[in-house]
Every structure is written in structure tokens, then in C-alpha cells.
Write a structure and sequence with these properties.
This protein is an alpha/beta fold. Helices cover 43% and strands 12% of the residues. Helix 3 packs across helix 5, helix 5 crosses helix 6 and helix 10 crosses helix 12. It is globular. Bound molecules: phosphoenolpyruvate and magnesium ion. Phosphoenolpyruvate binds next to strand 2 and helix 8. It is found in: Cytoplasm.
Length: 324
């Protein structure tokens, strides 16, 4: 099926109305790196660093990690790689760390919550990232941030790590950007100062959607119950796009929905201009975006919203089908 898309691999992801959409890939394993060459990705929008911790039977050493991060940046050849710091807890339990028994791990002691209370591993990881960059620009993103204060605390750890490396005489990244995943609804309502302080935000739709609808993403009985194109969710996402646009915050979307062509087209109609997805989705998404007129799709969104339609999907599908 991938061959079908090779003809557009070098072509830009440009809509019929001439808007460029930046398509990046999600990654986490060394096996993903060849896709940087053959998917047409413009960078790595989400590098899930916990995968490197999950595939080992022991805690990786700092030197091992910095070599690995360096190889990822080598493979990206100057394109940005957004490294997400460890997102453990919840469904991802490290075999060599004491598991905590929690009634609701997905909304429990996970990700940046663990990192801020037990900062040892995060400090080691931040150092490994700085060393791996070897003076190149570095992008780091903190997962599951739920409030401004958590982001500030995480960013302070990054500043401390930079200070330490400077004192030790290691080269510092030429440029550093520190962002957050927007995957808890609370961040959509965070103060303006938060939006002004982050270097970028990336919507983690997998988690954001489960918390928006209060529907467990791991629970077969409810996980497909609510449509991503449900108007309430689209209204919510549009609010985030609007805040980012007015406050000057760079925004992307990196949940699985970014890799589903119809969802991707609707996300761009809402105003998202950067989508990050599994490499195999880039061809199909690009192919549909190149036939989409965002203005027309927006008109349909507004009409359906005015009519009180539950989900944009039927109307979006009718429109997008007519473009095939
Ligand atoms: C998300 O929540 O959408 C996301 C990209 O992170 P993960 O799927 O790893 O939780
Ligand atoms: Mg997530």
C-alpha cells in the first residue's frame, strides 16, 4: 500500500487552497529511524522516550542514552526531533521499578508527576539529552502537564541541567525549546501566562480525548463510544487553537487521530498546521489533504454546528469523498 504514496512522497502536504501542513512522524525505537528517510516526514513531532526504558531489563545508563539520542538526531539530519521525557506510570510500567498499585493509573502517579516528585531519573535523562545534542538545537516536551506550576517546575529542572552541563564544560545546545503536551483538559483553561511561557504545545489527543469524554482509552466497551469528530470535542479543540493563535503559542497535534485522514483533514480545518503521526500514515494523510479545500470544509463545520449536529463525520465524509 505504501507504494501508492511514493509518487507524492517528495511533494508538499499542501491543501487545494494552498495551505502548507507540516507532517511529522512519531517514533520511539531505533527501528523507526529509517522512516525519517522514506516517509517524507518533516521531523519527529513526538519521540516517546519511555520505549527505550520499557524494552530493557535494567535502567539505561546516561551514557547509553546520550549516545542513543545523538543517533536519533543524526538520523534526523537537522530536522527537529521533539523528545518527550519519560511518560511512565499508567499503562507503562518499568519492569525494574517498583510498581505502585493504583485504582486509576491513567489519572494517577504518572509522567511529569513522577518526575517532579522523584527527579533523579528525569535529571539523568535531561543531561543525556543535552549531551546527545552535542551543541545542536534541542527540543524537549514534558508529558501530562496539568497546570502552569508543573510546567514551571519541569522547566526549572531543565535550566538546572543546563547550568550543570555548563559548569562541567559540556557544549550546550545551540538553541533549546521546552514545550508541554496538552493532554489534560485543565491546560486548555490555563492562564495566558502559561501559553506565553511554553515554547510550544502538542495536543496528545489519545489522553485528551479520554479525559474530555471521561472514557477510558483502554476499555473496549467505551473507547470507541465517542467520536473524535463529535462537535463538543471539535469546539473544545477549536478553543485551544484560538488561544494559541491569539497568544502566539506554536501548536501541533500528535495523538493517533492525526494519522487518520478524515480526522486529520478536520483538524486542519480547525486550524492545526502541524500534525505528527506514525510514519505509515503520512502518505494517506498527505494524499487527502492535497485534495481538501480548508475553506470549504470549514463552511461545512459551521453549517453542521449551526444545525446542532452531533458529529461532523457524516458531512465531512460526504465532502471528502467527493474529492477522491
Ligand atoms: C497522547 O496521549 O495522545 C499521546 C500522544 O501520548 P501517548 O499515546 O503516548 O499517551
Ligand atoms: Mg498521552
Amino acid at each position: 500500500a505504501q507504494e501508492r504514496y511514493t509518487s507524492i512522497r517528495e511533494k508538499p502536504a499542501e491543501t487545494l487552497c494552498g495551505t502548507h501542513i507540516t507532517l511529522k512522524m512519531n517514533a520511539g525505537l531505533m527501528a523507526d529511524l529509517p522512516s525519517l528517510e522514506n516517509s517524507g516526514a518533516e521531523g519527529v513531532g513526538l519521540f516517546r522516550t519511555e520505549l527505550q526504558f520499557l524494552i530493557r531489563s535494567h535502567m539505561p545508563k546516561r551514557a547509553e542514552l546520550s549516545a542513543l539520542y545523538g543517533r536519533v538526531m543524526d538520523a534526523a539530519k537537522g530536522r527537529r526531533v521533539v523528545f518527550r521525557t519519560l511518560d511512565i506510570g499508567s499503562d507503562k510500567v518499568l519492569p525494574y521499578m517498583k510498581a505502585t498499585d493504583e485504582p486509576n493509573p491513567a489519572m494517577g502517579w504518572r509522567a511529569v508527576r513522577v518526575a517532579l516528585e522523584k527527579p533523579g531519573v528525569m535529571r539523568m535523562q535531561l543531561q543525556a539529552l543535552i549531551r546527545g545534542a552535542q551543541g545542536r538545537p534541542l527540543s524537549v516536551m514534558f508529558p501530562f502537564v496539568a497546570q502552569h506550576a508543573e510546567f514551571r517546575a519541569a522547566r526549572a529542572e531543565m535550566d538546572k541541567a543546563l547550568d550543570r552541563e555548563r559548569i562541567l564544560g559540556h557544549p550546550l545546545p545551540a538553541e533549546i525549546e521546552v514545550g508541554a503536551m496538552l493532554e489534560t483538559p485543565s491546560l486548555a483553561f490555563a492562564p495566558d501566562a502559561f501559553y506565553e511561557e511554553v515554547d510550544f504545545l502538542s495536543v496528545g489527543g489519545n489522553d485528551l480525548k479520554q479525559f474530555f469524554f471521561a472514557a477510558d482509552r483502554e476499555n473496549e466497551r467505551v473507547r470507541r463510544r465517542y467520536d473524535t469528530l463529535d462537535m463538543s470535542y471539535l469546539n473544545f479543540l477549536e478553543g485551544i487553537v484560538y488561544r494559541c493563535a491569539t497568544l502566539g503559542t506554536r501548536l501541533s497535534f500528535c495523538g493517533e487521530d492525526a494519522g487518520r485522514p478524515i480526522e486529520a483533514a478536520c483538524l486542519t480545518a480547525l486550524g492545526f498546521r502541524t500534525l505528527s503521526m506514525r510514519p505509515a500514515s503520512i502518505g494517506p494523510v498527505k494524499s487527502l489533504l492535497r485534495r481538501t479545500n480548508l475553506g470549504e470544509l470549514r463552511d461545512i463545520l459551521h453549517e453542521e454546528r449551526a444545525r446542532g449536529t452531533q458529529s461532523l463525520r457524516p458531512a465531512a465524509m460526504d465532502y471528502l469523498r467527493s474529492k477522491l
